[in-house]
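Hi all, long-time lurker, first post. I run a small reading group and we've been trying to get comfortable going from sequence to structure in the token notation. Rather than ask abstract questions, I figured I'd post a concrete chain and ask someone more experienced to write out its structure so we can walk through it together at our next meeting. Sequence below, copied exactly:
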Amino acid sequence: MPTRTTVTLDDDVRQKIEAEMRKSGKSFKETVNETLRLGLFSREKISASKPFEIKARDMGLKPGYSYDKVWDLIEEIEGPDYK
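-- Answer (accepted) --
Happy to help. Here is the structure in token form:
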């Protein structure tokens, strides 16, 4: 059952609703309801999705190399003329 209510829209939201009304040819009521449904549906979908997880792997370091001498590593990989 539809419920009638008063909502105060910020100017930027009102402008976007009006632009969407012009584009779609739909009424204010239809545009607001459709926009709210889309926003609420996307929130449900985001909260239902599995959180992103990074699986770190030890890449190791070849024997004889050290992260303390990064420039030596770069020179080893790129050659002496890398600069």
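A couple of things your group might point at:
The mean pLDDT is 85.
The chain has three helices and no strands.
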